[in-house]
């Protein structure tokens, strides 16, 4: 039985979508799959059409009640696919198990009992590194760290890999970590830069399948079905089918003792992460808007002025300086084309990192796209 925890402490990066669709495609290919919903928000359960109001036992009982086994809580949603659904009471587990010995091994013990019943167990984790995620990491031999192209997501990925390393070292457990990029939109330069950086950083720990940004996922989740049952031929569905294939292809490798060196190395680079993102050329699309950054260690004051504030120098956006002389500010900008310049110690300057400029004014251009 293969056990995979789907993790990232950042919310909204595609964990649940990955859990639901990967589980569904692996089951379609003939393997017996169990999905354990470990998020009190129950999105995976709802995403597979389970009515979470009307359940006898859930992940909560599995973790709290010694006599509840997987077979008591599992709901069959399709041929070869079972789900242990969650409910809001799951959020009380942390508190209820606090101080109890063995509290991080609860899920592990229950999965051991059903090891003959399934080929694959996927655990959908909540957006935090609390006791629930910890239980999932301890219970699973593998971790699939999911991230969308955003700084916070990368940060969350690194944090969770650190936690896994801790578990490995302190509990002496073998773990395998792999990283999946989701919501990839090749139209944005940032996404492309992000993919390249992630590939460099995580090396072969990164899945070669990348899940593209597809509106159909939201629709499928609303209808309570996996993408394969809703829009089988859309690009996101094809991507998850490829991922299911790639995961299964990996089966034999998992059994080989393998240090997770590359992913671990990546976490050691963590202090450099802000630097990396700030030192990339041009403005970046990040969560919360557009990140403007300028390398100017000699400057004393930097402002951003442009079409978005009517070129009003009195009300320019002040940039903050970090320890290495990189100035930065994040601005929420509506979709459309925006022009800007920096005012560095009173002098107008184009952004040296942005080659996209108007003539003859040398105003720099940034275009914000509407998503889908
Ligand atoms: N590849 C994708 N393209 C577009 N939207 C996506 C994609 N993956 C997930 N979403 C949407 O993004 C939102 C967050 O995804 P979700 O899987 O719930 O993230 P998490 O479980 O990490 O919080 C959901 O509305 C989901 O439908
Ligand atoms: Mg989720």
CATH class of the largest domain: Alpha Beta
Shape: elongated
The CATH architecture category of the largest domain equals 3-Layer(aba) Sandwich
Helix content: 25-40%
Structural class: alpha/beta
Backbone CA Rg? 23 Å
CATH-defined superfamily of the largest domain: P-loop containing nucleotide triphosphate hydrolases
Termini, distance in Å?
39 Å
> Could you give the count of β-strands?
16
Beta-strand content: 15-25%
> In DSSP terms, counting alpha (H) and pi (I) runs of 4 or more, how many helices?
15
Listed once per kind, the bound small molecules are:
adenosine-5'-diphosphate, magnesium ion
Describe what this molecule looks like in 3D.
With about 375 residues, this protein is α/β, with parallel strands linked by helices. It folds into 2 domains: about 1-275, 3-Layer(aba) Sandwich (Rossmann fold); about 280-370, Sandwich (Immunoglobulin-like). About 35% of the residues lie in helices and about 20% in strands. It contains 15 helices and 16 strands. The protein has helices spanning about 15-30, 45, 60-65, 70-75, 95, 105-115, 130-140, 150-170, 190-200, 215-225, 225-230, 235-250, 250-255, 260-270, 275-280; strands spanning about 1-5, 35, 75-80, 80-85, 120-125, 140-145, 175-180, 285, 290-295, 300-305, 315-320, 320, 325-330, 335-345, 345-350, 365-370. The strands form 3 sheets. It has a 7-stranded mixed beta sheet with strand order 3-4-2-5-1-6-7, sandwiched between helices. Helix 1 (about 15-30) crosses helix 12, helix 6 (about 105-115) packs parallel to helix 7 and helix 8 (about 150-170) crosses helix 14. The longest helix is centred in the middle third of the chain and has 21 residues, at about 150-170. Magnesium ion binds near residues 15, 16, 39 and 43.
